[in-house]
């Protein structure tokens, strides 16, 4: 009887959260799926059903493929830059936990993650400025010519990857620190007695035991990077100053099609493709890390 009351209490406690999650997450996804097979201009009441026509048009659109390519480059670039850097920084901070500056280190690393996106992007836009930016001034000390970071398509992608990685790094470091603090010290002491160096202990003990943390951080980082928007909007202006035009990404392309071109059904089909890509990549990450964990 007591177990039943506890179960009913738990269900009653979690129902409001589930209801809110269903309302703000599941219902919008269902609405996007429905709109993706309809034609709608955002203004009229009529939404004729057109089947897969939006998807046929989407996959024949070179602008969509350009946006998908740029988004994928940014997402995987952020992932490859953030995860190793976060692991190294968190390991260094962990070994300084007895220092009175440990809290300062953690706060300093985490601040970029909670900073507002637009002011942070504006600050980085000044850093990357071709004429007045400190980055080109620093590179000039080594004889490197000033680079058009925000106007060259390739350099614009690199700039966005750097900015997104800088913002994602703090969260990843804090999560890795939690993992490091829960590792058993007995393993490291045994490795030290066997003559293992600090890099060897990190590679053969810390990294395998932190695979669940790596899985979580990689999934969160990749999903967030695929939804990149504000950073591109601020940094990647074209020669005429139009925001986000230098580097076309999926979210900006969706917003442009929905609210500038009034092609809501077409934009919804882009959102469905983005959702499918994120789900597939998440499944692949879970599968690969589980297989590696089973082998080890």
From TrEMBL:
<dbReference type="InterPro" id="IPR000515">
    <property type="entry name" value="MetI-like"/>
</dbReference>
<keyword id="KW-1133">Transmembrane helix</keyword>
<feature type="transmembrane region" description="Helical">
    <location>
        <begin position="155"/>
        <end position="178"/>
    </location>
</feature>
<keyword id="KW-0472">Membrane</keyword>
<feature type="transmembrane region" description="Helical">
    <location>
        <begin position="73"/>
        <end position="95"/>
    </location>
</feature>
<feature type="transmembrane region" description="Helical">
    <location>
        <begin position="7"/>
        <end position="26"/>
    </location>
</feature>
<keyword id="KW-0813">Transport</keyword>
<protein>
    <submittedName>
        <fullName>Bicyclomycin resistance protein</fullName>
    </submittedName>
</protein>
<feature type="transmembrane region" description="Helical">
    <location>
        <begin position="213"/>
        <end position="236"/>
    </location>
</feature>
<dbReference type="GO" id="GO:0055085">
    <property type="term" value="P:transmembrane transport"/>
</dbReference>
<keyword id="KW-1003">Cell membrane</keyword>
<feature type="domain" description="ABC transmembrane type-1">
    <location>
        <begin position="68"/>
        <end position="285"/>
    </location>
</feature>
<dbReference type="Pfam" id="PF00528">
    <property type="entry name" value="BPD_transp_1"/>
</dbReference>
<dbReference type="GO" id="GO:0005886">
    <property type="term" value="C:plasma membrane"/>
</dbReference>
<keyword id="KW-0812">Transmembrane</keyword>
<dbReference type="InterPro" id="IPR051393">
    <property type="entry name" value="ABC_transporter_permease"/>
</dbReference>
<comment type="similarity">
    <text>Belongs to the binding-protein-dependent transport system permease family.</text>
</comment>
<feature type="transmembrane region" description="Helical">
    <location>
        <begin position="107"/>
        <end position="127"/>
    </location>
</feature>
<feature type="transmembrane region" description="Helical">
    <location>
        <begin position="264"/>
        <end position="289"/>
    </location>
</feature>
<dbReference type="InterPro" id="IPR035906">
    <property type="entry name" value="MetI-like_sf"/>
</dbReference>
């Amino acid at each position: 009887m007591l177990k039943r009351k506890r179960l009913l209490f738990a269900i009653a406690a979690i129902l409001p959260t589930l209801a809110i999650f269903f309302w703000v997450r599941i219902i919008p996804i269902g609405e996007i799926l429905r709109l993706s097979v309809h034609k709608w201009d955002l203004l009229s009441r009529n939404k004729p059903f057109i089947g897969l026509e939006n998807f046929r048009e989407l996959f024949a659109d070179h602008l969509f493929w350009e946006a998908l390519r740029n988004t994928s480059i940014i997402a995987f670039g952020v992932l490859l830059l953030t995860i190793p850097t976060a692991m190294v920084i968190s390991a260094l901070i962990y070994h300084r936990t007895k220092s009175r500056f440990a809290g300062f280190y953690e706060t300093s690393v985490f601040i970029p993650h909670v900073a507002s996106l637009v002011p942070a992007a504006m600050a980085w836009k000044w850093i990357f400025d071709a004429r007045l930016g400190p980055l080109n001034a620093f590179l000039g000390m080594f004889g490197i010519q000033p680079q058009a970071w925000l106007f060259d398509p390739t350099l614009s992608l690199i700039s966005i990857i750097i900015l997104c990685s800088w913002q994602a790094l703090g969260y990843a470091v804090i999560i890795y620190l939690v993992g490091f603090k829960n590792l058993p010290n007995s393993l490291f002491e045994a490795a030290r007695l066997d003559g293992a160096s600090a890099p060897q202990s990190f590679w053969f003990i810390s990294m395998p035991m932190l695979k669940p943390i790596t899985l979580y951080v990689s999934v969160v980082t990749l999903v967030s990077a695929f939804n990149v928007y504000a950073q591109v909007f601020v940094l990647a202006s074209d020669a005429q100053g139009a925001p986000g035009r230098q580097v076309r990404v999926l979210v900006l392309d969706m917003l442009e099609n929905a609210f500038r071109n009034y092609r809501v059904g077409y934009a919804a089909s882009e959102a469905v493709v983005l959702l499918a890509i994120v789900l597939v990549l998440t499944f692949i990450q879970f599968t690969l890390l589980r297989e590696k964990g089973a082998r080890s």
